[in-house]
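task queued by scheduler; priority normal; single chain, no ligands, no partner chains; default sampling; output format set to structure tokens
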Amino acid sequence: MLLLQCSVVLLLLLPSTTRTQKLPTRDEERFQMQIQDKALFHDSSVIPDGAEISSYLFRDNPKRYFFVVEEDNTPLSITVTPCDAPLEWKLHLQELPEERSGEGSGEAEPLEEQKPLIINEEGTELFSYKGNDVEYFVSSSSPSGLYQLELLSTEKDTHFKVYATTTPESDQPYPELPYDSRVDVTSLGRTTVTLAWKPTPTSSLLKQPVQYCVVINKEHNFKSLCAVDAKRDADDAFMTVPKPGLDFSPFDFAHFGFHSDNHAGKERGYMPKAPSSSKFFRQINGKSRGDLQKLCIGNKNIFTVSDLKPDTQYYFDVFAVNVLTNMSTAYVGTFARTKEEAKQKTVELKDGKVTDVFIKRKGAKFLQFAPVSSHQKVTFSVHSCLDAIQIQVRRDGKLLLSQNVEGVRQFQLRGKPKAKYLIRLKGNKKGASMLKFLATTKINKQPFPSLPEDTRIKAFDKLRTCSSVTVAWLGTQERNKFCVYKKEVDDNYSEEQKKREQNQCLGPDTRKKSEKILCKYFHSPNLQKAVTTETIKGLQSGKSYLLDVYVIGHSGHSVRYQSKLVKTRKFC
């Protein structure tokens, strides 16, 4: 189990002159006391078992954390949450030093034996990650030893959170997401947007209190609530963190409740007087930090955001927060553009620039493309993220194209001097539509990777075993990068559930690292032979898996093939 006493690490690093003490196990009563008094773990190098710690990294200054697993075959789960910058982190395992005296008689050992215990600083590397996703290390059976977690930020000073537990099955501090974890836009107005999402099963099945927090901004979606809070704090510039090696001034200590007799705060242009508790609470939980809003709305799963600007694109995120642990899980965010104040205007397209388009249910969107120079051909590239949409293209009032588009499609039309193209995009009757659109006169400008006509994944039933499945898919003559991901699902996972998750605009960066199987480059000059196969190994018998193949183009845009539901054999 993880040790909660900081003295354990000190014992490992100091000379041993007597018999090494037996490492204590987790005492639940004392553990709960320590969790309530979180000051015990402030600025500590020991990670407590079953509690989330928050800390700060200075750029290019690594920070290490330790914990001990005393017994072999212990379950272990570690979660690292970057806040406002990508992190590089590694997990190493070091063997615990053996006990010095077998009998523990208390007699002094010979001088030559009284040497400091030497610990291998590196140990065995178990896991490493680099990025800004919430990433996990999970092991159902971990060996005993001293575990070292090293974190580094090379981009800027940043906050982060770490959670570790040896009882992952019973703790479950993070709310569980429903099978359809998307945030849907159900109503769109000039100044309002109504959002809806499926409730988390944590409140109904585990009977744990959960509240939802909605985040609205104009820049991008957030991957964690920690990132939201870091952005809000940065915008507030509430306090500048002192640099390593610099002394704290009376101004700095004033923030921690220490009083100063001088006027250092005035010299810095800062009013040291703290606000009242109620006013301070409203400031932290208020609705706005410039263009960033965070609203915690209780346990309801339908919410209307108001006071928005007309004809403005907003990004919406929903986080389920466990009220008992204050730990959160992010839903799949969405974006939408509010209606225009007056009559809807046509969106002007720029040559070679990808435009995100949102269309409400049964709605329509008008785009216009007017090339600034003469051109022989014009190319329209469409990537429909969800269901099929209808596209119509008119040139100077004449209808040139009218088709339904699903997935990625490219249309090339003959050009005409000083021509203007009007594009009408009509949404689906089933729900809102999201798509990416590009218009260009440059022949070689292709934002999305080329796709075969058939984007299905084929599974070979005769090659199916208890621990592996073999699949194949088609490629093209263009060399692209293909990445394969897997996700274990319940046996009653239906095609309808699979369809709900088919947002093709969500790339591999939205997937967990543990779900990644492989990435490879593939193409074939002969389209008849542009087929590649892969055997997915390491699966569990009698389990169902959802397989996804992503093709990544040269520009970085990715497209997902149609997901494939497979099941390993139960008996072999």
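post-processing summary
- Residues 1-43, 100-105, 111-119, 237-287 have pLDDT under 50 and may be disordered.
- The CA atoms of residues 250 and 260 lie 6 Å apart.
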